[in-house]
């Protein structure tokens, strides 16, 4: 009897591992790396940077067809031609923002820069939570486009900005400096952004009864993704005293966390709470529309 039981156990374990691997593979996707190879992104298309925050062309700069910074966002689309990528120019810099996902420090490589062309030119890479305070995490050079944060930041920490600065290794020709097709977070968490106006009354941190319907969508994502960790960030606009904004934003993040936990008596996924006040705006606080965008709660699901 022992042999059939052992065989059955091995078959069960094989089937479980196969189904888990298939589920992960179906979520992720392979992309051309710009040099004839492939790179797998566990989170698929949402892994890539979404917005250009700032671009400062170097001197000399590239031919006009390679000077549009929008060519550096979204999924890679370089096809071996002289277009569809951004040349930084000699000493140029590019700052990108991730909006539907966030960069997470995981074990192994964390970021992949789709630098195209014959050579991978030396480039300084930095990451930031707020686009103001930067951490230097490494240099891309010698044909290596992968960057591991290593001990630069603590495991599980979340970042939203990447900055690339050309190090003037090659300033000749029509495309001086690094040629960037896309930037992707290998360590990527899916980010869901909720409007505070749909969750809370002005100045309050208790969830409104109707807000729980909107949070049901979040719960569906959590159930389908089964994250290993969740980070919830509370944010405000710049009206009022910043000390009060920090307290309120953290309490609002806590209210969302408490609701998520309350949906399952056996809840076991760790949830980290952050309250940032008005320190991380995603729009101008000079307009009402901008202030509305800044009053938000971000829920980041880390695979």
What does this structure look like?
By secondary structure, this protein is of the alpha+beta class. It folds into 2 domains: 26-186, Sandwich (Jelly Rolls); 190-302, 60s Ribosomal Protein L30, Chain: A (2-Layer Sandwich). The protein has 4 helices and 17 strands. The strands form 4 sheets. Strands 11-6-14-17-15-16 form a 6-stranded mixed beta sheet. A hairpin with a 6-residue loop joins strand 8 and strand 9 (135-140). The longest helix is centred in the first third of the chain and has 26 residues, at 2-27. The chain is globular.
Quickly describe the structure.
The protein is built from four helices and 17 strands.
Rg, alpha carbons: 22 Å
Whole-number mean pLDDT: 83
Number of strands: 17
CATH class descriptor of the largest domain? Mainly Beta
Question: Which sequence of SSEs, written as H and E, runs from N to C?
Answer: HEEEEEEEEEEEEEEHEHEHE
Q: What is the CA–CA distance across the termini?
A: 40 Å
The poorly predicted ranges are 1-26
Approximate helicity band: 10-25%
Using the alpha-carbon principal axes, give the shape. Answer: globular
Main sheet specs: 6 strands, mixed
Distinct helical segment count = 4
Write the layout of secondary structure elements.
Blueprint: H1 2-27, E1 29-32, E2 38-41, E3 51-56, E4 86-87, E5 93-97, E6 101-104, E7 111-115, E8 123-128, E9 135-140, E10 146-147, E11 158-159, E12 161-166, E13 179-185, E14 188-195, H2 211-225, E15 229-235, H3 242-262, E16 271-275, H4 288-294, E17 296-302
Parallel strand pairs: 15-16
Antiparallel strand pairs: 1-2, 3-5, 4-13, 5-12, 6-11, 6-14, 7-10, 7-13, 8-9, 8-12, 14-17, 15-17
């Amino acid at each position: 009897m022992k042999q059939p039981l052992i065989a059955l156990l091995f078959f069960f374990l094989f089937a479980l591992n196969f189904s888990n691997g298939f589920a992960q593979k179906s979520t992720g996707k392979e992309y051309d790396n710009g040099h004839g190879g492939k790179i797998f992104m566990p989170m698929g298309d949402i892994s890539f940077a979404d917005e250009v925050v700032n671009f400062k062309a170097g001197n000399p700069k590239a031919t006009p067809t390679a000077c549009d910074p929008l060519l550096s966002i979204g999924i890679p689309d370089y096809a071996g031609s002289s277009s569809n990528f951004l040349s930084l120019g000699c000493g140029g810099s590019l700052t990108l923002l991730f909006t539907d996902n966030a960069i997470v420090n995981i074990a192994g490589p964390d970021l992949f820069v789709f630098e195209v062309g014959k050579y991978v030119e030396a480039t300084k890479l930095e990451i930031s939570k707020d686009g103001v305070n930067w951490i230097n995490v490494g240099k891309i050079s010698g044909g290596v486009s992968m960057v591991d944060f290593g001990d630069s930041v603590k495991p599980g920490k979340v970042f939203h900005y990447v900055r690339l600065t050309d190090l003037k290794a090659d300033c000749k020709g029509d495309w001086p400096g690094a040629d960037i097709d896309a930037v992707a977070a290998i360590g990527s968490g899916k980010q869901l952004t909720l409007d505070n106006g749909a969750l809370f009354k002005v100045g309050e941190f208790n969830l409104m009864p109707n807000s729980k319907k909107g949070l049901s969508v979040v719960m569906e994502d959590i159930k389908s993704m089964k994250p290993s960790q969740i980070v919830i960030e509370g944010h405000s606009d710049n009206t009022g005293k910043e000390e009060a904004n920090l307290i309120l934003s953290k309490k609002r993040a806590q209210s969302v966390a408490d609701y998520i936990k309350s949906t399952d008596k056996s809840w076991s996924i760790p949830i980290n709470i952050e309250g940032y006040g008005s320190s991380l705006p995603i729009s101008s606080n000079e307009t009402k529309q901008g202030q509305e965008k800044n009053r938000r709660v971000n829920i980041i699901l880390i695979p």
